[in-house]
Write a structure and sequence with these properties.
Order of helices and strands: EEHEHEHEHEHEHEHHEH
Strand content: 15-25%
Strand order of the largest sheet: 5-4-3-6-8-7-9
Helix content: 25-40%
Shape: globular
Distance between the termini: 50 Å
Largest sheet: 7 strands, mixed
Length: 267
């Protein structure tokens, strides 16, 4: 068993600079993965108030023998205590940074410890880890950012509500108009980043509703972005952060963010 007692301070921007302590935990899974010169893969599990889902999500990753880190994003429920009780490898943020800050913390972690690939698997149980090998394989073929998509092939999985699908189609069209790249599921958080994307996202990652904006950022920086078909599940419990009026805010904010990223690209 290898333990890292180092404490690292993450600089994360959410309006102002916030200092959040990263408490590195048990690295028991790191040893297993470095056999046969296979790529070092880290699964990033952002979690905010996921006490109902976090155990099953982490257990499914452990069963597949991947390194992982739970990013506890200042949860106010029992997520932290549950992770501690199960001795999960957890990075505990002292305050809520939002999904962008939590995911960027994971990218910083992957970059600091020399991972070749990191995979975002949300803590709500929607992402099926059985598709992780396919995401990894695409990165090994030379792609920088791979999106797990619900819409490029007919699948039996959960595809979100009707209104959200309309919003996804709009963002997909807007992204294609402004970047020239056709991404059918730009809001998907089930994605893999290779070394180039890890390096980029460690330094530059949107803080709020980041998925479509980060795709535009990757394209702007010349990274190769592709999608592969995956199936997703309905969240196992808890409440989505995007509902009601926040859905409208999400659409407006992300539309503007993609536009700004596109302007930088052509500047």
């Amino acid at each position: 068993m290898i333990r890292a007692s180092t404490q690292w301070m993450l600089d994360a921007r959410l309006g102002d600079i916030v200092k959040a302590k990263l408490d590195f935990g048990n690295f028991n899974h790191m040893v297993k993965q470095n056999i046969n010169n296979s790529p070092k893969v880290l699964v990033i599990i952002p979690a905010y108030n996921e006490e109902e889902n976090i155990v099953s999500t982490v257990d499914s990753i452990i069963e597949m023998n991947y390194d992982y880190v739970v990013i506890n994003d200042g949860s106010t429920d029992a997520t932290r205590q549950i992770c501690e009780e199960h001795q999960f490898n957890m990075l505990d943020l002292s305050q809520n940074l939002g999904i962008g800050g939590a995911v960027q913390a994971g990218h910083k972690y992957a970059h600091r410890y020399g991972y070749d690939i990191d995979i975002q698997v949300d803590g709500d149980g929607q992402h099926d880890p059985s598709f992780i090998p396919e995401l990894v394989a695409e990165i090994e073929r030379g792609v920088d950012l791979v999106i797990g998509s619900r819409f490029i092939a007919e699948t039996a999985g959960f595809k979100s509500t009707f209104l959200r699908r309309l919003g996804i189609k709009w963002l997909s069209l807007w992204l294609k108009i402004l970047t020239g790249v056709d991404v059918k599921d730009p809001t998907s958080g089930f994605r893999a980043s290779g070394r180039n994307a890890i390096r980029l996202f460690s330094e530059n990652y949107p803080m709020d509703y980041p998925e479509p904006d980060s795709i535009a950022t990757a394209i702007r920086e010349g990274l190769l972005v592709r999608e592969i078909p995956v199936e997703m599940r309905e969240r196992g419990g808890g409440v989505s952060s995007i509902s009601g009026f926040s859905s409208l805010y999400y659409m407006v904010k992300v539309t503007i963010a993609i536009w700004i990223a596109s302007l930088h690209r052509h500047a």
